[in-house]
Amino acid sequence: MTSSSGSLKLEIHTDDKTPAGKWSVALREEVFRRFLSGGGCSEKAVFGEESLFSPFLFGKYFDPSDAFPLWEFEAEVLLASLRSLGQCRVDWSQTDQAYVLKSDLPVVGKNNVQVYVDVNGKVMEISGQWNSNKKTAANGDWRSGRWWEYGYVRRLELPGDADPKNSEAFLSNKDDYSFLEIKVPKINSKNKF
C-alpha cells in the first residue's frame, strides 16, 4: 500500500509469532566494538553512531534490544553532538496530537523493516534483517542468538498516553537510504491523523 506522497505504509504488527528467546542475547559494549571494528561498510551503515540502531546513538552505550524511553528526552539534548557534526539521521518529537519518530535507514541486504507493538502496547520495536547470507540460529530465527550479525533492532518504550493501536508507519526509498516515519497518536488527542 502506498500513500499519496509515494511512501509505503507499513503494517504495525501486534501478533508477533517469534519464537521465545528473541533479543535474549544482550549486545555488550565490548562485543559490539569488536564486531564493528571487524565489520565492513554494511555493518558501519547499519550500526554507525548516527543510525537509529547504533548502541551509541544517545551519547553513551545502550543495547538497542533493551527498551528505551525515547520520548522522555528532548532530541536536541541527546543528539546535540551528532547534530553539531552534521551526522544526525534520526529525530523525534511530540505535538499535542502525536509522538513522531523519523529516521533514515541504510539500504543494506533485504532491508525488510518491520514494526511491532507488544500486546500490552508499552513497547514499539523496529527491526529488520540486513545480512541473510549467514547461517541463522539453530531454531532458524535470526533474532535469537547473536542477532546483530543478521539484523538490527531498536526497542522504544511508549509513553503512557500513547495510542499504539492507531499508530502509522511509512517507508519511502531514496538513493542509499530509506526514510522511516512513525506516528503514534496520543490517547486524548481530538485530531487523529
UniProtKB/TrEMBL annotation:
Coiled-coil region(s): none
Signal sequence, start to end: none
Bilayer-crossing regions: none
Pfam families per UniProt: HSP20
Occurrences of domain SHSP (ranges): 81-193
Superkingdom of origin: Eukaryota
CDD domains: ACD_ScHsp26_like
Family affiliation: Belongs to the small heat shock protein (HSP20) family.
Protein name: SHSP domain-containing protein
Origin species: Arabis alpina (Alpine rock-cress)
Lineage of the species this protein comes from: Eukaryota, Viridiplantae, Streptophyta, Embryophyta, Tracheophyta
